[in-house]
């Protein structure tokens, strides 16, 4: 694997290999007083974030450091971007300085793909840490890792993705990956927060994908038949105009509260990619309940991102 730019087109074998490596790394580090592996010693990972981030940025930094890579953070505000330098020139500068991998978050959809094209001859790998409203592949992988941990195989499992699907790169990446791994995905949202042609979303899933995609506007009707429910943040910063009457009405129709939690099967798990708008898309009592795997998602995010860096940067003779 040279780059990780999207889950669209990522086949089940490659995705499963990353998830299996993450499981192995997690077991290896379990109980260690010093969480440090020599696997990526001598490698340099640069995180380049043009949008705010807590979980993704910190987990990539921890992942690189736990594998003994040198990790350097570059922010738009503290770099020559503030002087007008283009994304292309910044990327070429980092590659020339010796970056083996660039982890990029950018507000423009397709930015990671462009970056990979510009660095094609530099031997530098690119990881998409979120590009506009397009994709966020490592989030989908850590969500899949969490679901595998809680539910076992994803094949045949029914997963509801609820809320602001229209503006969510997390939703898109999860749709592609979960369908590729054999899950049945149902998108639950008001019509105004679903993208046009939403039924065509799984068209980019890898060949041989055995999952399916359906759409619903009735959250209460879907909850009794799902194995997992993933709540999405309402991304007000990307909205221009009215997509729903009010925050209160949205919470009434699509918020996961204690009453709705009781509608779920006993084994069902609650996910949220964060940051959470408590009281709007999810109640605090639900987010902090034993049914919630939100903290586990963050924890698994470190191991999944370690696995991604391993597959991109470790030599063929290295072991995880």
TrEMBL record:
Instruction: Give the matching Pfam families.
Output: OTCace, OTCace_N
* Keyword field: Pyrimidine biosynthesis, Transferase
Domain called Aspartate/ornithine carbamoyltransferase carbamoyl-P binding: residue spans: 2-149
- Annotated pathway: Pyrimidine metabolism; UMP biosynthesis via de novo pathway; (S)-dihydroorotate from bicarbonate: step 2/3
Q: What class of enzyme is it?
A: transferase
One GO MF term attached to the UniProt entry: amino acid binding
Which residues does the record give as carbamoyl phosphate binding sites? 55-56, 105, 136, 139, 274-275
Q: Which reaction does it catalyse?
A: carbamoyl phosphate + L-aspartate = N-carbamoyl-L-aspartate + phosphate + H(+)
Identify the domain of life. Bacteria
EC?
Answer: 2.1.3.2
Q: What PROSITE patterns does UniProt report for this protein, alphabetically?
A: CARBAMOYLTRANSFERASE
The Aspartate/ornithine carbamoyltransferase Asp/Orn-binding domain covers which part of the protein? Answer: 156-312
GO CC terms: cytosol
Give a yes or no for keyword Cytoplasm in this entry.
Answer: no
Tell me which residues bind L-aspartate: 83, 169, 233
GO terms under biological process: 'de novo' pyrimidine nucleobase biosynthetic process; 'de novo' UMP biosynthetic process; amino acid metabolic process
Q: How does it assemble?
A: Heterododecamer (2C3:3R2) of six catalytic PyrB chains organized as two trimers (C3), and six regulatory PyrI chains organized as three dimers (R2).
**Which function does this protein serve?**
Catalyzes the condensation of carbamoyl phosphate and aspartate to form carbamoyl aspartate and inorganic phosphate, the committed step in the de novo pyrimidine nucleotide biosynthesis pathway.
Name the family: Belongs to the aspartate/ornithine carbamoyltransferase superfamily. ATCase family.
Instruction: Specify the protein name.
Output: Aspartate carbamoyltransferase
Q: Which organism is it from?
A: Amycolatopsis arida
């Amino acid at each position: 694997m040279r780059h990780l730019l999207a889950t669209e087109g990522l086949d089940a074998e490659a995705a499963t290999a990353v998830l299996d490596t993450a499981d192995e790394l997690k077991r290896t580090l379990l109980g260690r007083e010093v969480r440090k592996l020599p696997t990526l010693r001598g490698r340099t990972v640069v995180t380049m974030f043009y949008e705010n981030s807590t979980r993704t940025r910190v987990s990539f930094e921890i992942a690189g450091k736990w594998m003994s890579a040198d990790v350097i953070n570059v922010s738009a505000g503290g770099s020559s971007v503030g002087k007008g330098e283009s994304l292309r020139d910044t990327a070429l500068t980092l590659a020339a300085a010796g970056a083996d991998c660039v982890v990029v978050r950018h507000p423009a959809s397709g930015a990671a793909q462009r970056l990979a094209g510009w660095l094609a001859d530099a031997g530098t790998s690119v990881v998409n840490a979120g590009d506009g409203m397009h994709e966020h592949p490592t989030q989908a992988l850590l969500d899949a890792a969490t679901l595998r941990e809680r539910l076992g195989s994803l094949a045949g499992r029914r997963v509801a993705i609820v809320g602001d699907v229209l503006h969510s790169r997390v939703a898109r990446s999860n749709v592609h990956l979960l369908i590729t791994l054999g899950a049945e995905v149902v998108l639950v949202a008001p019509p105004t927060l679903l993208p046009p042609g939403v039924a065509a979303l799984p068209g980019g899933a890898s060949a041989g994908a055995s999952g399916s995609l359906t759409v619903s506007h009735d959250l209460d009707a879907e909850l009794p038949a799902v194995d997992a429910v993933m709540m999405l943040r309402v991304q007000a910063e990307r909205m221009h105009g009215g997509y729903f009457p009010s925050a209160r009405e949205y919470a009434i129709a699509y918020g996961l509260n204690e009453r709705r939690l009781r509608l779920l099967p006993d084994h069902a798990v609650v996910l949220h990619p964060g940051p959470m708008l408590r009281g709007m898309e999810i109640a605090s009592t639900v987010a902090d309940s034993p049914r919630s795997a939100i903290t586990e998602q963050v924890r698994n995010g470190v191991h999944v991102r370690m696995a991604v860096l391993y597959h991109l940067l470790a030599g063929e003779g290295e072991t995880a």
